[in-house]
Amino acid sequence: MANDVRVIDSEYAIDEGTKVQYIVIKLGDEQYGIDIKYVDNIVRMQSITRVPHVADYIKGVINLRGVVIPVLNLRLKMHLEDVDDTDASRIIILKLEQYGLIGFIVDEVKEVVTLGESQIEKTSYDGTEDKQIFVSAVGKVNNELISLLDMNVVCSEK
Fold first, then answer.
1. What does the alpha-carbon distance between residue 100 and residue 98 come to, in Å, rounded to a whole number?
2. CA-CA distance, 12 to 113, in Å (whole number)?
3. For the chain, percent helix, then strand, then coil, each to nearest 5?
4. From start to end of 45-143, where are the E strands?
5. Which of 45, 34, 29 has the alpha carbon at shortest distance from 84?
């Protein structure tokens, strides 16, 4: 994984319940967590080959060590405003059972946090915001909230 990612073992994650590690990413001013069990690699932005006649959030494909990987813009998939890539932008390569390897462009990769069951609250979707359907729970660490993404829902065509 990238050398510039901090690992935080939250002081609150000492309970005896199940602990899960999440990689914290930023999209705009909001923080999102992705279960680390899905993360295969984190790479700097690189040349993306466009693919014609695909959804606007599919940016194209990259060749990573001989493997062709589709790349999606997570901002567009979540119905957020598109912005130009920066030096902090990264492509997170996820390995999902039913989809294989998929890359997601994110604004920044911040850190890895460990959350215990007591720090995670499940959310319910009320239909008011499109991006809420992608969030399965909210984690609390160091007085900050992290929206935890359900990557299988993010990858679905709905």
1. 6
2. 11
3. 15, 50, 35
4. 58-64, 67-73, 90-96, 100-106, 108-116, 120-122, 135-141
5. 45
Name which of 1-10, 92-101, 135-144 the model is least confident about.
1-10
Amino acid sitting at position 22: Y
Q: Phi and psi of 77, rounded to 5°? A: -60, -35
- In a 13 Å sphere around the CA of 96, the CA atoms on its Cβ side amount to 19
Report the C-alpha gap between 117 and 15 in whole angstroms. Answer: 8
pLDDT of 130 above 90: no
How many other C-beta atoms lie within 10 A of the C-beta of residue 57? 17
Reading the block at residue 103, the tokens are 């890359």
DSSP count for the chain of H helices, then E strands: 2, 12
What whole-number distance in Å separates Cα of residue 60 and Cα of residue 129? Answer: 27
